[in-house]
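Hello Y.,

Per our agreement to keep a running log of every chain we model this quarter, I'm adding this entry. I've kept the format consistent with earlier entries: sequence first, then predicted structure.
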Amino acid sequence: MKNLRASSYLNQVDVGNGTTLLYNGSTLCIDLVPTEYARMLSEGHDLFFLLPEEKQHLLNRGHLTTLTPKRELEEFRKLVSLILEKRARVDSKQRIANLCFILTYTCNLSCSYCYQHSLADTATASPMSGEFVERFFSDYFPQLFPRKPKKLLLTLFGGEPLLPSNREAIARILAYAKRRSSVRISVATNATTLPDMADLIGPLQGKIQNVQVTLDGDRPLHDENRISVSGQPTFDTTIAAVRQLIELQARVSLRMHIHHGRLESARNLVDYLEKEKILSHPQVDVYFSPINTFDSEQNSPAEAALFGGLFQEVAAKTNRPPSNLDFMSRFLDMQEKKILPKVRFCGTGGDNFYIVDPVGDIYGCYEEAGHRDRRVGSFPNGKLQFRALQKSYSKRHLLHLPECIRCSAALFCGGGCPSEARLQKGTIFTSHCHQNKEFVAQTLKAFFLRKEVRT
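Predicted structure for the entry above:
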């Protein structure tokens, strides 16, 4: 076979025992090969070490190709276009809507890195009223979702959504959900006010069923960063709240922040959560969320190895990778080319994801909520009106991201956070890689190792 070479979309991750997973970012096929083979493929060696039948197999799977880089890029563009078309058809049939209520911009904590610190003026606005909630569901909701969704996922957000001052609005939202079995409610909270709001949480319809709580590391690091407005530490209060949520039979999503250069703190927190029987509790899902870029290409090999080791340890103890990439588990059984509908990083710009704040402004991104110049719509005179930004966000996909369309992990990532791309590079039409490649590799490795144990 002439002009045979490693695909530009070839990725790999070492899974131990001298073996490596090859995973192709275009065909999405996955194969286990000797690590030495994977190394020589990545380094562009001549393919003398492969038998003819091995070459043919890797060619069929897409790990090898006879296409030139330019032609392979053209074929990948066609694939992305096909995925966009298919995704639009699927979305029109499934109609799963995601709606977030920003109940207030006020918070009882003063975290050192909070992206909402600049919202001082907005924070003085009144919290969402019960009357607004009623008006929203009767008048505004049908305008946002003209095709009635089959399933509605509601998220309560802030500021701090579980402040007692938000009780009336939450009660109205829960009453709406109680009348509709298709509605599920989650909240992202610091959980410090949970004792006053515990009656709103539980597994039944019309309750807050899923709760996301953040830990910043072990006690010293958490209490350095996540403090109350009066300067009091919050680690012990947060842990007590997690225990109470478990008693309330809520599903707890435990978000663990990973700070650059502070991995030992994350290591200590994992040990603490395991000792306290929280880490692997059946009602708790743990996932890592880096505060800073955490990419093996930008950190020392030792730090990347420590991160990978911690990631895999948590995955083994919880039987689940500590990431939000659960969809990757199904890749392992692929025996032929499949289509993965992942050409956008998030729901921003889509017609089934909106964020609504107390004054009725609509946003497409959590981190832009409250910055009125970044709203995508509003309801002047009670009528929905979208702004030009919504259309711009709708165009933010791989075909309009020149760096990403060439990336070997593009279909696993979707281009990274558009808001962070804008803040760091001045435009949403560029990449924000963050830790995405590293998380993709570690997540796939964790699912593979789990499958190996089961078989």
